[in-house]
Amino acid sequence: MLKVYLSGEIHTDWREQIMGGAKGLDVVFSAPVTDHAASDDCGVAILGAEENKFWHDHKGAMVNAIRTRKGIEDADIVVVRFGTQYKQWNAAFDAGYAAALGKSLIILHPPEHAHALKEVDAAALAVAEEPGQVVDILRYVLNGTLP
């Protein structure tokens, strides 16, 4: 079984596209919490309120990091998606963490981000533009078959 962690932007259905396309493959997926409000507020919901927004966000980031680190550490492959709507600084951090751990890394982004992400792309074993390409990579890795 191949364990794949799906990191990155949460505003499109790219995760669902990959998981749907991978049906029938021996793959198990994990991901960060993609409910934006829950992700932002998990720290204060669990550990208590903060008056200062910095500490509110800091608590959430630390609690989320527990989940993210475990997901990346347990994964065979880490897919990191950079979308067009927002800057995903956390996705860049996840890509760097995965690379530092020696994880097989697939970066997913539109062509217009190629220059901005050149260093991130250089750490990856594959750079895809579409979720279907990630599915094709997973199928090839598992079965040796081409699309």
Main sheet strand line-up: 2-1-3-4-5
Mean pLDDT: 96
The portion of residues forming beta strands comes to 15-25%
Number-wise, the strands total 5
List segments where confidence is low: pLDDT < 50 over at least 5 consecutive residues: none
Which geometry do the CA atoms define? globular
* Cα gyration radius (Å): 16 Å
SSE order in H/E notation?
Answer: EHEHHEHEHEH
The description of the largest β-sheet is: 5 strands, parallel
Compute the number of helices. Answer: 6
Helix-strand makeup class: alpha/beta
CATH architecture of the domain at 2-32 and 76-143: 3-Layer(aba) Sandwich
Query: CATH topology of the domain at 2-32 and 76-143, which one?
Result: Rossmann fold
* Helix amount: 40-55%
In CATH's first tier, which class of the domain at 2-32 and 76-143 applies?
Answer: Alpha Beta
